[in-house]
Amino acid sequence: MADEPKVPPEGGASETPAKPAPAAGSPASASPQPAAAPPAKPAVPAKPAAPPAPKAPVKPDPWTSPLLDTLQKKFPGAVIEAVIFRNLPSVRVAKESLVPICEFLKSSEGGEYKLLTDHTAVDYPKREKRFDVIYHLYSFQRNDRLRVKVVLGENEKVPSVTGIWPTANWFEREVFDMFGIQYEGHPDLKRILMPDGWTGHPLRKDYDILRQDDNWVQSNLGIKSGQ
Structural domain tally of the chain? Predict the structure, then answer.
């Protein structure tokens, strides 16, 4: 007997089994991912800005005041220069007039600058007049300050002002010790920082920072200089 034809199941579905749906979370169920972007190029650092142009040095201004007028009238030709910088007036005077001018400045007529707050020097070895000798004065009465300056050559002496301000005793000894400046009329001009017998004056510009008095070190410390 001939085989009977197979009848498809009710509903018309074919006998071919359907493929199962991929399980959730499996690679086949995931949506396709876009390609990774190429790595960003490192940023090129910006060139540093050019440094600003140096400013021109600020120069002092000419100084005028009733006190200066009085000084010029009382000591004709003795005031060589009068300037003011950052509210500090400064007068450069002739060496020969230093003591009488300082005596006047300490008096009530001259402003009562009764305190010598500081005294020092500056070395300009290439200048004809090598040293600036500087006095800083203070007036309690006026509550202001004044700088007095004298210019000296290499071997010139300057009058001592210890008779006007007693504190000048130690200040002048220090300037003598460090710069070698001689003071006429000082009661006891000798070294105050360096040992007695030391050779040279350490704050002169031609005195090297590493320089030592080899003979003094050897004879007093028993070692070689720089050891």
Answer: 1
